Amino acid sequence: MLFHVRMDVSLPHDLDHNRRAELIAAEKDRAVELQKLGVLPHLWRVVGQYGDIGIFDVPSNDELHAFLSSLPLWEFMRVEVTPLAQHPSDLAAQP
Amino acid sequence: MLFHVRMDVSLPHDLDHNRRAELIAAEKDRAVELQKLGVLPHLWRVVGQYGDIGIFDVPSNDELHAFLSSLPLWEFMRVEVTPLAQHPSDLAAQP
Amino acid sequence: MLFHVRMDVSLPHDLDHNRRAELIAAEKDRAVELQKLGVLPHLWRVVGQYGDIGIFDVPSNDELHAFLSSLPLWEFMRVEVTPLAQHPSDLAAQP
Amino acid sequence: MLFHVRMDVSLPHDLDHNRRAELIAAEKDRAVELQKLGVLPHLWRVVGQYGDIGIFDVPSNDELHAFLSSLPLWEFMRVEVTPLAQHPSDLAAQP
Amino acid sequence: MLFHVRMDVSLPHDLDHNRRAELIAAEKDRAVELQKLGVLPHLWRVVGQYGDIGIFDVPSNDELHAFLSSLPLWEFMRVEVTPLAQHPSDLAAQP
Amino acid sequence: MLFHVRMDVSLPHDLDHNRRAELIAAEKDRAVELQKLGVLPHLWRVVGQYGDIGIFDVPSNDELHAFLSSLPLWEFMRVEVTPLAQHPSDLAAQP
Amino acid sequence: MLFHVRMDVSLPHDLDHNRRAELIAAEKDRAVELQKLGVLPHLWRVVGQYGDIGIFDVPSNDELHAFLSSLPLWEFMRVEVTPLAQHPSDLAAQP
Amino acid sequence: MLFHVRMDVSLPHDLDHNRRAELIAAEKDRAVELQKLGVLPHLWRVVGQYGDIGIFDVPSNDELHAFLSSLPLWEFMRVEVTPLAQHPSDLAAQP
Amino acid sequence: MLFHVRMDVSLPHDLDHNRRAELIAAEKDRAVELQKLGVLPHLWRVVGQYGDIGIFDVPSNDELHAFLSSLPLWEFMRVEVTPLAQHPSDLAAQP
Amino acid sequence: MLFHVRMDVSLPHDLDHNRRAELIAAEKDRAVELQKLGVLPHLWRVVGQYGDIGIFDVPSNDELHAFLSSLPLWEFMRVEVTPLAQHPSDLAAQP
């Protein structure tokens, strides 16, 4: 089941520099891991932003929330979730 | 080069029924064609909406505009284009 | 899997009166049916609005889209879908 | 009398860690208590957010305000209240 | 129980002139009636607008919805309802 | 002359606790005083908010600004002023 | 007493041409008249818009509403009223 | 003097087809003419939209308004004007 | 050439008190000076706000930017600039 | 390939003064450099704002993101990117 997730990061300018570096490294590790697990089949950066668009493939809403809320940068993100359905014109849906 | 395109369709309720059916059929044919051409690698329906999210893969802005503005339903669409870049945590970008 | 759906209806003032009455009756029949099926465990009217808040219980995004887009009044609705997860303080989640 | 309440929490990143933990624990205790009292028949987490949707059942506006404004995290919440009425298609309203 | 209701009217410019006059007269009669019943203790016009602010005094959400949705101009109104509570600094609340 | 004033208070979480208590007490005293003077014939709390709706009765715009800008919490308020006129359906305006 | 009024005109494209011309001529006559009466000391066109900014000088809210709601184009205007006060740095307010 | 102008066109779907074609041809002629006159040094189409961004070079606000309000499609445009100043980092401003 | 400028001031609550007083005094001096120079023919306070509406009369966009960006409180202002043209119904424009 | 980029800068008022001066000087150097490279053929200041409009000419989305995200002030900017296409009425596109 696919969900479109927009994630915009806003780090406070007075955040401790080591903490900032740790958070960013942990976020990257987690993003790579989620891709390897097949949970995050697509991940793009939005041009000009510290923001991403990801497509999540998960079996349920609860699991999606668990993945998102455990992201290392979640506390500093604005997140917007949009459920996706198969498009009637999707090649895979054609007879 | 990838672009994220949100397309929301709003057909006037007093549109002629034959014209409506023709437009929708033509839109579907074009969407299938763009997928076969590799121009539209992803196309999803937004749950609950007469609206889509598509990822376009095109060589230039001009070509993207040509594809979008020649969609049969373009006149009745609200379109929002977001340029995408490779994400630094994209698996394909890892060493 | 639960989804929160806000549905706001806007019927054109020049819609044929018989068609209007038919649509409203069909919408009511469908709403009753969806409740009997267990698909729509909660349905409320928003005070002062021709608008509803419904909680849908469905196995997938695709099925939710199928239910919503086949509502008799769907063409005249603004729909907003919000996926829900179990709350950590939900009584049912306590040890 | 039912009210739909959206509650979005935003904790300052420089809030003392013990105070944060105390507030969150107190909020959870209160949420469980309100459910046991029947004041909060439904409580969901919004997927991807530190935010909730709750349905409150209270005898008056004044009591709803008293419940909301005494939540431990109220100071850090954006709250939006929507009064609900029985839906004309509600199963319970059918003859 | 008090509710603050903002009502903005927008009549289609091609509405039949007799129907328009009838609706406006009926709306006025109903507004006077609601005041006499004590349901609408305050009613103001917003300067420069075809719009009102009314304070409704009703025993329940359901009754408020019944009053609003039966207003002759309801079909042409944008309505916004805000529940009110007694203010802690209200003279009537002082010891 | 009546004005509808929405006042939303937002106190910084790191404001000194004594200063906070003093401000809130001073605000309450002033609100009571303005009611006794007849300047503030109605004052309500918005359910779920640290925010108010007040109806001010003043002889001029300048005096309204003087009253509002000298409120103890003014510095921490978002204020929205809407001028009101007598409603044509107001009981007091009927022949 | 001064009020800042933004007026944006939107005429339906299918409005009868004679009626359109009459309305525009009547609006101009009324604008000239209000200036001669001293009610409208300033009137500007917003560059690029069919919209105006006017400063009205009136003795009360009720009179402002009467002036605005009797403008020939009022039915087709979006109106926004902002009450003004003397600025503490106004030359006329200096000792 | 430079102004940034965003122009978004919205033609009613029931506009007569000949009138539509005439308007679009006249708009194009005028756009070419303004470029030749040096009034419109830059004109771009926004990708995916029936909308433009133009940079106008005019001696005054009044002349800018005259140019914009006499565009053949002006009646069907949403226009947004932003005044521009020389950037302190502009190459032409460097010593 | 006239420009309508809305200026809203937001001073951080933890700004040093002496600095605050100096800035406000300097802003007032500058506002008086600009009025004496004829650059700021009108300046009003918006009722209920720490915000102003000013009409600037300047020979060019560059000079307007120079005036605005050198205001003592500019760093703490949200500024919105709207270019004005002579109104076709302006008394001064009548034959 | 052209992109329209709006960049609005917001520096925290408690940023260290030396750091602020360094950032602003570095930003200026980089803006001059990008112009010399032909990457930034147009750069304007928005009147009244600490904000810019730039036209970027780059071969790809990825390069645009690299340029923008390495701007010295990027961390403090709100950035909005709009892809541009050749206008059908552009002089250069005429036969």
Could you state the CATH homologous superfamily of chain A? Dimeric alpha+beta barrel
Tell me the series of helices and strands of chain A, N- to C-terminal: EHEEHE
| Silhouette of chain A | elongated
Q: Determine the oligomeric state from the structure.
A: homodecamer
Number of helices of chain A: 2
Main-sheet strand order of chain A equals 2-3-1-4
- Number of discrete domains of chain A: 1
How much helicity do the residues of chain A have?
A: 25-40%
Gap between N and C termini of chain A: 21 Å
3D architecture notes:
10 copies of one chain form a homodecamer. The first copy, chain A, has 95 residues and is an alpha+beta fold. Chain A has a single domain (2-86), classed as Dimeric alpha+beta barrel (Alpha-Beta Plaits), CATH 3.30.70.1060. Helices cover 31% and strands 32% of the residues of chain A. Chain A is built from 2 helices and 4 strands, in the order βαββαβ. The first copy, chain A, has a 4-stranded antiparallel β-sheet with strand order 2-3-1-4, with no helix packed on it. In chain A, strand 2 (42-46) and strand 3 (51-57) form a beta hairpin. The two termini of chain A are 21 Å apart. In chain A, 36% of the residues are buried. The A-B interface holds A 2, 4, 27-28, 31-32, 35-36, 42-48, 52-53, 55, 82-91, 94 and B 2, 4, 27-28, 31-32, 35-36, 42-48, 52-53, 55, 82-91, 94.
What attributes does this structure have?
EC 5.3.3.4 (chains A, B, C, D, E, F, G, H, I, J); 4 strands; 2 helices; homodecamer; Alpha-Beta Plaits; alpha+beta; 32% strand; isomerase (chains A, B, C, D, E, F, G, H, I, J); MLI_dom (chains A, B, C, D, E, F, G, H, I, J); Muconolactone Delta-isomerase (chains A, B, C, D, E, F, G, H, I, J); 95 residues; elongated; 31% helix; Dimeric_a/b-barrel (chains A, B, C, D, E, F, G, H, I, J)
